[in-house]
Amino acid sequence: MADEYGERTQQHDVLAEAEARRQQARQHHGQPAFQRVPEEGQRCRGLASGAQHIGRARVSSFAAAAAVADLALAEEDETMAVIPAAYGVEVIDRLLDEFDTLVLMKVKPLVDEILELLERRGLTATSCFVEKVGAPEERVVHDLTRLRGEKVNYLSLLLVQNPKRARGELRRGCRERAAPVAGSLAAAIDA
Fold first, then answer.
1. What is the separation, in whole angstroms, between the first and last Cα of the chain?
2. What's residue 34's pLDDT?
3. How far is CA 135 from CA 29, 33, 54, 151, 190, in A?
4. Measuring CA to CA, how many Å separate 61 from each of 12, 105, 106, 155, 161?
5. Are β-strands 127-131 and 156-161 bridged in parallel, bridged antiparallel, or unpaired?
6. How do 139-141 and 80-84 pair as beta strands?
7. pLDDT for the residue 26
8. Reduced to 3 states, what is the DSSP secondary structure of residue 130?
């Protein structure tokens, strides 16, 4: 009985801590939390095999980052891709020609090389760096020149908008295409 009581007390503490973090995020952002608290369910399950975790809907980090940076990811006919920065600078360079917005996840290992690419392509003014979105240590940087040589957090991403992208013909609705179109994302990655 004592062990069961101790497990329940620990479960209550874990859930109370998670709720406190959600409330803190609500106060900080003035809306439901962006903050991810996935460990609460794992910690409760680890304390007692019969513990039940109720999942809650969450916002993806790139959508939350766009919200706190006050940037639209895509409007009307604009295109967007979300990729890990680990695909490399060459792939990122090719994809910038294919999409209006490119979301680069986990940029820490390549941040300086990506910044060089964005400077070379004249896209630093339309890009934004976001680190630890939804956490108390959240940081939004619009002036990317401040990041050069700086150590950034693993939980960081870049929102890159390319207003200079050349566009093809706009197709509206669900009409059949005259010829099959190869997937540009897959082609860029394989190239």
1. 63
2. 43
3. 10, 9, 21, 18, 36
4. 27, 9, 11, 9, 17
5. antiparallel
6. unpaired
7. 56
8. strand
* Cα 25 from chain centre: 17
Asked whether 130 and 140 are in contact (CB, 8 A), the reply is yes
* Rounded Cα distance, 126 and 178, in Å: 35
Residues of the chain falling short of pLDDT 70 = 1-12, 14-15, 18-57, 170-191
54-67 pLDDT per residue, tens: 555 578 999 999 99
Task: Give the span between the Cα atoms of 27 and 19, in whole angstroms.
Answer: 12
Q: How far apart are CA 16 and CA 169, in angstroms?
A: 54
Beta strands in the chain (DSSP E): 80-84, 101-105, 127-131, 139-141, 156-161
pTM above 0.90, yes or no: no
Count H helices and E strands in the chain, helices first: 6, 5
